[in-house]
Design goal:
Shape: globular
CATH class of the largest domain: Alpha Beta
Radius of gyration: 18 Å
Structural class: alpha+beta
Order of helices and strands: EEHEEEHEEEEEEHEEEHEEEE
Distance between the termini: 18 Å
Number of strands: 18
Oligomer: single chain
Largest sheet: 18 strands, mixed
Number of domains: 2
CATH topology of the largest domain: Diaminopimelate Epimerase, Chain A, domain 1
Length: 280
């Protein structure tokens, strides 16, 4: 099986063209491919290009635990770069259909930067989804164990919980992230961002990603945090979001559609042997 590996600020993905894969990958095979000791090693897997009726290309996105994700900002920028490397797209924008909706992506000259129009953000509890009465989930309390938190919840096609912090830390993300991800108030689990506002143009976040765990960077997380901060009046409509892996730029339009821009790095391409997909 031919595979390619890319990373976006340390958030790495394996890309597989379905034409190179004779059958549907199982959950266990996806886990093996993403395993850093027994497989190629990655934070997730991108399966595409797939046929799409509503876009130029279709894409399926998988977490390293084998579950399917609706949308990924870094994954989409990586996939756009993969299409560009294969000569399937030029520098003109292309559309990509995901389980979380259709997005527009564009690779800049040289291939090292890519932009994705991520779609419209919503804070509506019914769309996220989040338990409780219909409402915009903005700066409300959440009790997790002994911790009393203030959160916003949002969706860009995938669910997010933004935790307001005086200081974001990896320790806090790793301790509280898994509890928030699986809290009963999020029936489809949640990606969790611990957000610190540095100034109106700069945010800092630490990330616990649904199905992946502690993550160096996440494009949709950067978008969710920026949108929540802007909705609360804490940052501008153009903001730089710093993460352990680096920074991304998020632009928020008046209609609450978001655009994400940042780097993509091609790491390697090669062959993954079939025996690596078994437990033997």
């Amino acid at each position: 099986m031919h595979v390619s590996k890319y990373h976006a600020l340390g958030n790495d993905y394996i890309v597989i063209d379905p034409a190179e894969q004779p059958g549907e990958l199982t959950v266990e095979q996806i886990r093996r491919i993403c395993d850093r000791r027994h497989g190629a090693g990655a934070d997730g897997l991108l399966l595409g290009p797939l046929p799409a009726t509503t876009a130029d290309f279709g894409l399926r996105i998988f977490n390293p635990d084998g579950s399917e994700a609706e949308k990924s900002g870094n994954g989409l920028r990586i996939f756009a770069r993969y299409l560009w490397d294969r000569g399937l797209v030029s520098q003109a924008p292309c559309t990509i259909a995901t389980a979380g909706g259709v997005v527009t992506a564009q690779v800049e000259p040289g291939g090292r930067l890519a932009t994705v129009a991520m779609g419209r953000v919503s804070f509506d509890s019914r769309e996220i989804p989040m338990a409780g009465p219909p409402r915009e989930v903005l700066n409300e309390p959440l009790q997790v164990g002994a911790a009393e938190l203030r959160i916003c919840a949002a969706t860009l096609g995938n669910p997010h919980c933004v935790v307001l912090c005086h200081e974001a830390s990896a320790e806090k993300a790793q301790r509280l992230g898994p509890l928030i991800e699986t809290d009963p108030c999020f029936p489809r689990r949640a990606n969790v961002q611990f957000m610190q506002v540095l100034d109106p143009a700069h945010l800092r976040i630490e990330i616990w990603e649904r199905g992946a765990g502690y993550t160096l960077a996440s494009g949709s997380s950067a978008c969710a945090a920026a949108a929540a901060a802007h909705r609360l009046g804490l940052c501008d409509a153009q903001v730089t979001v710093a993460m352990p892996g680096g920074s991304l730029q998020v632009s928020i339009a008046p209609n609450w559609t978001l655009t994400l821009r940042g780097p993509v790095t091609r790491v390697w391409a090669g062959v993954l042997f079939e025996e690596a997909l078994s437990n033997a």
